[in-house]
Each structure stands twice: as structure tokens, then as C-alpha cells.
Amino acid sequence: MVPRTSAFPFATFRPPTPRPQVGEARATTEEFNREVFWRRLDEAAVKVSREATALTTVFSGLPLPSSQETQRLCKQVYAAIKAIIAVYYSLPKDQGITLRKLVRGTTLDIVDGMAQLLEVLFVNPAQSPENNDLISCNSVWVACQQVPRIPRDNKAAALLMLTKSVDLVKDAYEEMEQAVEECDPYSGLLNDIEEDTSDNYNNEDDVLGFPTNQDLYWSEEDQELIIPCLALVRASKACLKKIQILVAENGKKDQVAQLDDIVDICDEISPSVDDLVLSIYPPMCHLTVRINVSTGQALMSVFEMELECLLD
């Protein structure tokens, strides 16, 4: 067996990697050039991807590189990571917080992917079969490939986030609507259990753990409370879809702060809908449901004000 001492520099070369923070941007007197920024970010992502490939290629077979060669490769990787973080920091906040969050998220994915790659290379020596599939499976390449797909302005970034919110609320509404129509939220689960046990048991009461507790079903009072819940989720879905269309048709790229505010509210509506949908499943706590309804109604009121501002 080949000793792992030649890979030791991975353990010693662990400089503190700066991680991008929300809201931070480097102060500069230079006028921001959007075209230059995106070209630099694309080039930095390509550089990271190449360094990851080079590192993996060197450690995919024997003999392993010397300590000096490993140090050199790691320094190149570290320089590439610092470079792409520096590009992120050059994106001013006035270009849009939504856009900066997307760039930051992708940058963090690249940093985390590279850290994972280095860890795998250190833990699994070259003779380990796991290293043979690193290029195809490691997340650093996937993250780098996402950079060209990032929206190029805050309006496009806002539309992307709004689309995600619409899809999430739509899924929640459809799930809730199906459960209400069937009047049995756990019917799918019960049917699966019945099918799995029908061949072996003739008596449901003999099935160990078969859910016969009435807490699995809605009472008449529960079903009356569900009606306004369903209406609120439907209204949330319609409102999100409406704001998505308005932003696409009437939103202006220079409405940076307003678009950010809209996305912030949308980011709250989707989780509030999830909380509401989850709270209606039995056994239902009516107080929790009413609290979630009140929260949703408050968010919708704020959302409607944002709609009026956008229309103005």
C-alpha cells in the first residue's frame, strides 16, 4: 500500500478562506461596469473549474505528487477561490440585494464544492476507487457551471425568485386541495399500508401499527376551519402570480429597492403558506391554524400595498 504522507500538505495547507457575507461590498470610486463584472465572474468560475480538474487529475493515479507540488497546486486553488470571492465583493449593493444574494449563493456553492473536493482527496488516497469518479460527481464543477445561468440584473433575479415562490405555493395549494377533496389527508398512506398488508392479513385489526386512530381524520369542526384556509392559500397563489406578471410586464430595471422589497415579502409568504398547510393536518390545533391564518392575512395586506406601488 502506498503511504498517504505525500498527501500530507492537504492537512497542513488550510488557510482561512474568506466567505462572502450578505450586504458586504467593497467600497470603490470607480463606476460599476456590468459587462466587465459578468465577464470577470465567468472567467473566475472557469479558472476554479480548471484548477479543480487539474488537482483531481494529479491525484487520480500513482505516484502521488510530492509535498512541494501539492503545496503549489493548493496555492493555485486558493488563489482561484480568492479571485472569485473578490469578484463577488465588487458587485455593489445598488445593483440589487436579490441579485447579490444569487451571486453570493453560487459563490458559496463553489467555495463549499472546492472544500469538499480537497477533503475527499485527502481522505481517499489515489488507490481508492472513490477518486475515479470525482470529476463526474463533485459539486464544484456543477456550481461553476451555474455562474453563466445567473440572472444579469435585479429585475431578472426578482422574476426568478418570484417564479420559485409561485411554484412552491402552487404545489402547497394543490396538495391541500387534493386532501380536502378526498376528505382524508392520509388516504395515500392508508392505501399503501392496505396494499402492502392485504396479501398477508385478512383482518385489519391484526395488522401491527395499522392507523385506526380517529386523530388521523378531520372532524366536522376541522373541515369548517379548512374552508377559509383554502381560500387564503388560493388568494396567495393568485396574488403571487399577479405580481410575477406585473414585474415581468411593468417592472423596470432601475426599480432596484422596490423589486427587493417585493422579493422579501414573497420569501415570507411561501413559508407562511407551508406552515398553514402543515397545521391543518390532523390532529388539528385550531389555535395554531388561526395564528397561521392571521399571519398570512397580514402578509397579504402588505403585499397588496406593494402591488399598488408597482402599478403607480
UniProtKB/TrEMBL annotation:
GO terms for cellular component: cytoplasm; nucleus. Residues 204-294 form the Cyclin-D1-binding protein 1-like C-terminal domain. It is found in: Cytoplasm; Nucleus. InterPro entries: GCIP-like, GCIP-like_N, GCIP_C. Its main location: cytoplasm. The keyword Amino-acid biosynthesis does not apply. Keywords: Cell cycle, Cytoplasm, Nucleus. Pfam families: GCIP_C, GCIP_N. Residues 41-182 form the Cyclin-D1-binding protein 1-like N-terminal domain. Belongs to the CCNDBP1 family. May negatively regulate cell cycle progression. May act at least in part via inhibition of the cyclin-D1/CDK4 complex, thereby preventing phosphorylation of RB1 and blocking E2F-dependent transcription. Interacts with CCND1 and GRAP2. May also interact with COPS5, RPLP0, SIRT6, SYF2 and TCF3. This is Cyclin-D1-binding protein 1. It comes from Prolemur simus.
